[in-house]
């Protein structure tokens, strides 16, 4: 039952004693220079090892592992599918037979040209969770939303990922992104899954189309001729990957401090937890914000400590009928309330700003050799 | 997951017929609804608590239908109305003891269920909650948990059930799903759910830090050529009234503490036109806009809660 | 650089050498060589006079069919034969005529007298269930704790009603194994002023006696880890490091950089707690044996059931974080964790900081900020220094 209850929330609740929580919170909220349990700086990520194209049976795949043994594997598979317009829209095809004016407005054809978000399917498998539990669904929606939501106006990939999946008006690719976490997560698994998905998509190849126009599609069976889902440019001209999938970064705030890539203990004392999806903007150098989601901080579910003055087991204490609400130094209180707008703005700024963490993460990912 | 307990309709859902001739008429129902409110003007909200006598607390929330919808209902030209308005019913059960098998909890255990009625949207929904409904439930839980003082109710559970009787559209029904086919209506639904649930919790006399209310702001572009047009910031958008929504944000906000308990922003907010002299970045403007919308909803919310108290005093 | 993404490391799969084999077959009555520099090549006596399999056996492997041996843990015998067959993968160990196989990685099995750190997972009406990284939850009866009010009194129904005010879910306790039941589950007690609720510090879980902790898995990730690790491997016969039963499980460490005194508890079960040293606790532990009744009252009630942390300076917090990282580095490289190695690793980490600090003075701020993270490349250096240091100590002792 306790498992079930944890699963119903988006975040897991670790069992930590009030004394531990209080120690952690004070260490992490020390002004200017928080002390993280593993000595990292606030913006430092845990080192990872990454490799791509590890599964021959997929269109693209990647694996990322943390030093603590947590690993994620992502496999991307693509299938050709006939385009059916969604049932809740006008039946444009029957209208089209009338050849009326609507047809020429180009509106009804747009679904076939710019693609649909539903063509990207994402499923996340986390050991210990059912596939309809809140956590995998929440994570999946979060990552899919930024993935299909990024619409680029750059020539290499106009219209973003969705448009890239269009073969012609009647056919499209359906992309299955299957994320597998190999062990029960030791921390909130979002950054791990997001980085792995990023690399897997970069290594994804689709067979080369041989047919043209509105014919039924057929493809080159030479795998070597296959084209990358995210097109690559010649090594000589500019960046190797002109367009890259978005990345989701987990940020927490503790007191005045903003901390990246929190581990399980750190996230359990956080005042606010945000998942921020970013990508490189191609009109300018700046990073582009794609989505923000707040995640329920587990600190709200923790047990509060009892100050010595109210502890019935202490001499000279007065057991209070109604536990007092004010803060006593060294005593843990579960976090209440929300987060100030200024804190949210600061968290976003640390990610997006020039030379900020988002840029560093993307640079780090660009350094990974994708086969 | 297939629903094996019921005999369901055809899986694709059914929808009323559309007659092509209507589409061609320039004055007919196929006209896109136009926003007639100011950018910062909210729709009117109907909110009442204590509608369901068997629940510990309950509320019913309804958004004012847009002008075009009201006109279409008064003088129907098409079987399908041009837009829809949100209607949500919320019930709160508890605090009640946790089941015997449950582990000890020092806090009130909150569970939220958001369910669309099968007839809530144009496309029929099944009886089993799908991914977007579960996703909404998680968002709502995050929003409410920050407001409830959970340690006042140890070892007990609180169940919040929201039934969406009529949902907001994701886009104008005449539009084909285009590149902006994200589920924008979901954000309006979430904002409504937060406000309704907050009223129901207050009705159930659960300790809260503040009444938390939801608000939505969006960057919309109404020009036909979306690439060249400059998106504008609008509060409380009805997705059916706009050609495309570039980015939207929903917040759950507690005005007394000036704190946000839940934020969900999505879409590309990089190309927004703000007023001159406004040096906020566009996502900040979006969040501020959503907070303003939530502030507006909060006035209705506190009035509704006060009203229910005076009503119960009058009855006593 | 806030993020480092490395290519995957291919672990050295050096073929098994005959030399290292015999170091794995440990005779429990013999001191194990620690130097690891150049081991004298000696064949185990066991193998010389009987046909017992080499050091490491796998389940189903016949260890011996000589009827003179008795069957111990980790083995079984077919009813109609005399051969002893291993049931776990591990080292063959012999005690006189008893043959047993010690698994390389296993869970903690409680033994009477073990000092353990545990976490309360469930509160029942008259006892607590405690997670001690063993296969079964241990129990801590209400009658086995020091009740407040000083006098060693009987528990009352009032105590039962407010059982959660002593220990509640999630609380960490330090306790001693009082008895072990038939099914292997342990019964704990905290009837000493050394024991009680833990606060003012950090918890970490590593591998326990010859086995693995539940929350942290030991990963062999480092380059050359196996080479150095084998030199420092736990003498208990396990090659994976972790905490082993030793002379001192609790000690006070004088930290550098103004951190003051820090206490370290190495629970035999692999749960470790590092916390700020307080004088009150010191007085309590040093006078446990002959404390007067009135004094007991004073001390027992002062802090045993408190969940309020004292004021701890940032310097102390930093050194506590350093110590916990040192232990994590030890675990990562498969080195046993005890007072000697922890102290050594701590000194080594200070030395590494000096080395790094010298040539990185003018680096940008990013690098400065990440300096306290020890688990990357610095970990390897710490282990090198530690191995060197321990080897020197050993030689000095011999000389």
UniProtKB/TrEMBL annotation, chain A:
GO terms for molecular function: mRNA 3'-UTR AU-rich region binding. GO terms for biological process: exonucleolytic trimming to generate mature 3'-end of 5.8S rRNA from tricistronic rRNA transcript (SSU-rRNA, 5.8S rRNA, LSU-rRNA); nuclear mRNA surveillance; nuclear polyadenylation-dependent rRNA catabolic process; rRNA catabolic process; TRAMP-dependent tRNA surveillance pathway; U1 snRNA 3'-end processing; U4 snRNA 3'-end processing; U5 snRNA 3'-end processing. It comes from the Eukaryota. Keywords: Cytoplasm, Exosome. GO terms for cellular component: cytoplasmic exosome (RNase complex); nuclear exosome (RNase complex); nucleolus. InterPro entries: Exosome_comp_Rrp42_subfam, PNPase/RNase_PH_dom_sf, Ribosomal_Su5_D2-typ_SF. It is found in: Cytoplasm; Nucleus, Nucleolus. SUPFAM superfamilies: Ribosomal protein S5 domain 2-like. Belongs to the RNase PH family. This is Ribosomal RNA-processing protein 42.
UniProtKB/TrEMBL annotation, chain B:
GO terms for molecular function: RNA binding. It comes from the Eukaryota. Keywords: Cytoplasm, Exosome, Nucleus, RNA-binding, rRNA processing. InterPro entries: ExoRNase_PH_dom1, PNPase/RNase_PH_dom_sf, Ribosomal_Su5_D2-typ_SF, RNase_PH. Residues 1-37 are annotated as: Disordered. Belongs to the RNase PH family. GO terms for cellular component: cytoplasmic exosome (RNase complex); nuclear exosome (RNase complex); nucleolus. Its main location: cytoplasm. This is Exoribonuclease phosphorolytic domain-containing protein. Residues 41-206 form the Exoribonuclease phosphorolytic domain. It comes from Penicillium olsonii. The keyword Lyase does not apply. GO terms for biological process: nuclear mRNA surveillance; poly(A)-dependent snoRNA 3'-end processing; rRNA catabolic process; rRNA processing; U4 snRNA 3'-end processing. It is found in: Cytoplasm; Nucleus.
From TrEMBL, chain C:
InterPro entries: Exosome_cplx_N_dom, Exosome_RNA_bind1/RRP40/RRP4, KH_dom_type_1_sf, NA-bd_OB-fold, S1_domain, S1_RRP4. Residues 19-33 have a biased composition (Acidic residues). One of its GO terms (cellular component) is cytoplasmic exosome (RNase complex). Keywords: Exosome, Nucleus, RNA-binding, rRNA processing. Its main location: nucleus. It comes from the Eukaryota. CDD domains: S1_Rrp4 (cd05789). GO terms for molecular function: RNA binding. Residues 111-191 form the S1 motif domain. GO terms for biological process: CUT catabolic process; exonucleolytic trimming to generate mature 3'-end of 5.8S rRNA from tricistronic rRNA transcript (SSU-rRNA, 5.8S rRNA, LSU-rRNA); nuclear mRNA surveillance; nuclear polyadenylation-dependent rRNA catabolic process; poly(A)-dependent snoRNA 3'-end processing; TRAMP-dependent tRNA surveillance pathway; U4 snRNA 3'-end processing. It is found in: Nucleus. Residues 1-54 are annotated as: Disordered. Pfam families: ECR1_N, S1_RRP4. Belongs to the RRP4 family. This is S1 motif domain-containing protein. It comes from Penicillium olsonii.
């Amino acid at each position: 039952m306790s498992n079930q209850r944890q699963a119903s929330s988006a975040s897991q609740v670790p069992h930590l004693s009030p004394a531990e929580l209080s120690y952690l919170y004070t260490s992490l909220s020390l002004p200017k220079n928080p002390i993280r349990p593993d000595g990292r700086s606030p913006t430092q990520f845990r080192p990872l090892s990454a490799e791509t194209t590890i599964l021959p049976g997929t269109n693209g795949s990647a694996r990322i592992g943390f030093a603590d043994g947590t690993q994620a594997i992502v496999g991307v598979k693509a299938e050709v599918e006939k385009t059916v317009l969604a049932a809740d829209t006008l039946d444009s095809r029957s209208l089209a037979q009338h050849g009326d004016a609507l047809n020429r407005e180009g509106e009804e054809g747009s679904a076939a040209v710019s693609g649909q978000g539903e063509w990207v399917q994402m499923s996340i498998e986390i050991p210990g969770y059912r596939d309809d539990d809140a956590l995998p669904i929440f994570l999946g929606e979060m990552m899919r939303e930024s993935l299909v939501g990024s619409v680029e106006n750059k020539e290499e990939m106009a219209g973003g990922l969705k448009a890239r999946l269009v073969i012609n008006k009647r056919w499209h690719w359906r992309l299955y992104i299957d994320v597998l976490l190999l062990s029960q997560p030791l921390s909130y698994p979002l950054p791990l899954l997001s980085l792995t998905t990023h690399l897997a998509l970069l290594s994804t190849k689709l067979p080369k189309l041989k047919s043209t126009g509105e014919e039924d599609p057929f493809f080159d069976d030479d795998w070597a001729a296959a084209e990358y889902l995210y097109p690559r440019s010649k090594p000589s001209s500019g960046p190797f990957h002109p367009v890259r999938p978005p990345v989701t970064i987990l940020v927490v705030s503790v007191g005045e401090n903003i901390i990246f890539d929190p581990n399980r203990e750190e996230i359990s004392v956080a005042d606010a937890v945000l998942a921020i999806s970013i990508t490189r903007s191609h009109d300018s150098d700046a990073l582009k914000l794609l989505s923000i989601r707040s995640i329920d901080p587990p600190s709200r579910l923790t047990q509060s400590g009892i100050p010595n003055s109210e502890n019935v087991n202490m001499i000279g204490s007065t057991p209070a009928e109604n536990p007092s609400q004010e803060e006593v130094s060294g005593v843990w209180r579960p976090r209440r309330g929300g987060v100030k707008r200024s804190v949210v703005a600061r968290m976003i700024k640390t990610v997006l700003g020039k030379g900020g963490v988002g840029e560093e993460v993307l640079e780090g990912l660009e350094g990974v050799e994708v086969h | 997951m297939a629903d094996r307990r019921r005999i369901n309709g055809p899986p694709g859902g059914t929808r009323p017929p559309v007659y092509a001739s209507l589409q061609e008429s320039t004055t007919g129902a196929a006209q896109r609804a136009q926003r007639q409110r100011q950018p910062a003007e909210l729709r009117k909200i109907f909110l009442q608590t204590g509608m369901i006598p068997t629940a510990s607390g309950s509320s019913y929330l309804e958004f004012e239908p847009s002008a075009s919808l009201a006109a279409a209902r008064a003088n129907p030209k098409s079987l399908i109305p041009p837009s829809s308005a949100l209607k949500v019913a919320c019930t709160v059960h508890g605090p009640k003891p946790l089941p015997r098998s449950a582990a000890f909890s020092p806090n009130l255990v909150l569970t939220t269920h958001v369910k669309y009625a099968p007839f809530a949207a144009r496309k029929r929904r099944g009886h089993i909650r799908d991914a977007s409904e579960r996703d909404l439930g998680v968002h709502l839980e995050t929003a409410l948990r920050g407001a409830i003082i959970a340690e006042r109710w140890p070892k007990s559970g609180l169940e919040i059930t929201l039934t969406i009787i009529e949902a907001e559209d994701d886009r104008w029904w005449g539009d084909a799903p285009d590149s902006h086919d994200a589920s924008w209506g979901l954000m309006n639904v979430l904002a409504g759910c937060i406000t309704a649930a907050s009223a129901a919790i207050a009705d159930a006399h659960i300790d809260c830090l503040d009444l938390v209310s939801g608000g939505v702001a969006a960057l919309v572009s109404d020009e036909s050529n979306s690439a060249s047009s400059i998106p504008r910031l609008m509060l409380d958008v009805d997705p059916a009234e706009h050609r495309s929504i570039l980015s939207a944000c929903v917040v759950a906000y507690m005005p007394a503490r000036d704190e946000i308990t839940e934020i969900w922003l999505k879409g590309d907010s990089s190309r927004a036109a703000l007023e001159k002299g406004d040096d906020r970045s566009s996502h900040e403007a979006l969040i501020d806009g959503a907070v303003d919308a939530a502030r507006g909803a909060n006035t209705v919310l506190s009035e509704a809660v006060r009203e229910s108290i005076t009503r119960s005093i009058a009855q006593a | 650089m806030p993020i480092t993404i490395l290519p995957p490391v291919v672990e050295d799969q050096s073929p098994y050498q005959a030399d290292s084999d015999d170091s794995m077959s440990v005779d429990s009555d013999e001191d194990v060589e620690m130097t690891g520099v150049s081991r004298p090549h000696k064949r185990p006596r066991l193998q010389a006079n009987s046909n017992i399999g080499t050091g490491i056996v796998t389940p189903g492997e016949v260890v011996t069919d000589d009827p003179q041996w008795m069957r111990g843990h980790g083995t079984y015998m077919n009813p109609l034969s005399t051969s002893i067959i291993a049931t776990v993968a591990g080292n063959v160990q012999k005690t006189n005529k008893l043959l047993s196989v010690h698994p390389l990685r296993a869970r903690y099995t409680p033994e009477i007298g073990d000092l353990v750190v545990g976490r309360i997972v469930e509160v029942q009406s008259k006892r607590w269930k405690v997670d001690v990284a063993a296969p079964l939850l241990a129990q801590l009866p209400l009658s086995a704790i020091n009740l407040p009010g000083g006098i060693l009194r009987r528990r009352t129904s009032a105590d039962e009603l407010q059982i959660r005010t002593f220990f509640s879910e999630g609380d960490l306790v330090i306790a001693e194994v009082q008895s072990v039941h038939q099914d292997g589950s342990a019964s704990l007690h905290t009837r000493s002023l050394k024991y009680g609720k833990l606060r003012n510090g950090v918890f970490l879980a590593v591998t326990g006696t010859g086995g693995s902790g539940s929350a942290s898995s030991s990963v062999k990730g480092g380059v050359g880890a196996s080479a150095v690790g084998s030199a420092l491997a736990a003498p208990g016969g396990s090659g994976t490091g972790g905490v082993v039963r030793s002379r001192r499980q609790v000690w006070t460490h004088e930290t550098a950089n103004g951190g003051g005194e820090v206490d370290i508890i190495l629970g035999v079960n692999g749960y470790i707690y590092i916390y700020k040293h307080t004088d009150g606790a010191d007085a309590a532990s040093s006078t446990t044996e002959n404390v007067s009744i009135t004094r007991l009252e004073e001390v027992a009630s002062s802090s045993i059931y408190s969940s309020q942390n004292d004021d701890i300076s940032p310097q102390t917090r930093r050194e506590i974080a350093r110590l916990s990282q040192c232990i994590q580095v030890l675990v990562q490289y498969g080195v046993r964790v005890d007072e000697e190695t922890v102290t050594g690793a701590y000194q080594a980490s200070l030395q590494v900081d000096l080395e790094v600090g010298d040539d990185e003075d003018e680096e940008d701020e990013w690098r400065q900020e990440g300096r306290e993270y020890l688990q990357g490349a610095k970990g390897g250096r710490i282990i090198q220094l530690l191995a060197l240091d321990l080897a020197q100590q050993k030689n000095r002792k011999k000389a």
